[in-house]
Amino acid sequence: MRDQASELRDQVHLARIITTVSGKGGVGKSLTTLNLAVALSNMGKRVLVFDMDVGFANLNILGGIESRKTLKDFFGGLKLKDIIEKTKYGFWLLNGGNSANDFYAFQFGERERLFSEFYEFVSDVDYILFDTGAGYSKMLDDIYTASDDFILVITPEPTAIMDGYTFVKLLSMKKPDGRFFLVVNMVNDLSEGRDIIERFEDVARRFSSLRFEKGFSILNDPQVRRSVREQIPFIISYKSIQPSLAILGLSSFINGNTNHVQDKRTFVDRIKSIFGLRR
After folding, report:
1. 3 has a pLDDT exceeding 60
2. Which pick of 102, 201, 234, 250 has the fewest CB atoms within 10 Å?
3. What would you report as the CA-atom Rg of the chain, rounded to the nearest whole angstrom?
4. Could you tell me whether strands 16-22 and 85-86 are parallel, antiparallel, or unpaired per DSSP bridges?
5. Using H for helix, E for strand and C for coil, what is the string for the chain?
6. Is the pLDDT of residue 158 over 90?
């Protein structure tokens, strides 16, 4: 049975779960997550980012964040609150780690304790951002179905667009109830971005059950590449460039339109499902 404290937290807690996905690697998915986390934090929101690409996590590197502890340390006996780090950008980061030890610890570690401590931490958080690995993974089905919002990141490259289509078709079979946003990264101009968004959304309507709430284009800007080398989010170091304005638009839309109701499961049940636990 659930305790009264859990019941009370569920009645008042409205944390949104946002999952960033892509059909293939190298499209800027983690960079989008990083800058979105900064934007939401700058709005005064309490944000936790969980780099779920366990064994290959790199969001900390993109942001120049010194992560001393990862999931393998939690499964080695540390408390989760000692693993989650408050970053210099204002959000918290749970680093999935980039070693084989992290991968195996997550696969075979004690999920009940992970759920319990994770739920306790996020009970005071406004947004939980899951940065997943590239491509569709059946192992992440529970995260997909628990999410309030999805951000699919593609580029103008034909392979990225095709892999994005494939991801949408596979995901639609799970009938997720979240909102969907499309980010077309590294476009040559905004006209190209609008064209890709229109064509992608049209194909999604015709061949899947998914509908996109809104699309955003991000220009192929040399200052974004420079920010990656500098390991500073471009929304901080280059505030006035179009990519920063696009991320601000995405964050404002997400934060200003939170009336969408996810499935009827309680928050605690959705968090349980994310870690492979059932009621």
Report:
1. no
2. 201
3. 18
4. unpaired
5. CCCHHHHHHHHHCCCEEEEEEECCCCCCHHHHHHHHHHHHHHCCCCEEEEECCCCCCCHHHHCCCCCCCCHHHHHCCCCHHHCCEECCCCCEEEECCCCHHHHHHHHHCCHHHHHHHHHHHHCCCCEEEEECCCCCCHHHHHHHHHCCEEEEEECCCHHHHHHHHHHHHHHHCCCCCCEEEEEEEEECCHHHHHHHHHHHHHHHHHHCCCCEEEEEEEECCHHHHHHHHHCCCHHHHCCCCHHHHHHHHHHHHHHHCCCCCCCCCCHHHHHHHHCCCCC
6. yes
- Give me the sheet containing 127-131, strands edge to edge: 85-86, 92-95, 47-51, 127-131, 16-22, 149-154, 179-187, 212-219
* Average pLDDT along the chain: 90
Q: If you search the block for the tokens 């991801």, which residue do you land on?
A: 167
* Tokens encoding 66: 């010194």
Read off the pLDDT of residues 119-152 as tens digits, 9 standing for 90 and up.
999 989 999 999 999 999 888 898 999 999 999 9
Location of structure tokens 């077309």: 184
Q: What is the pLDDT of residue 172?
A: 93
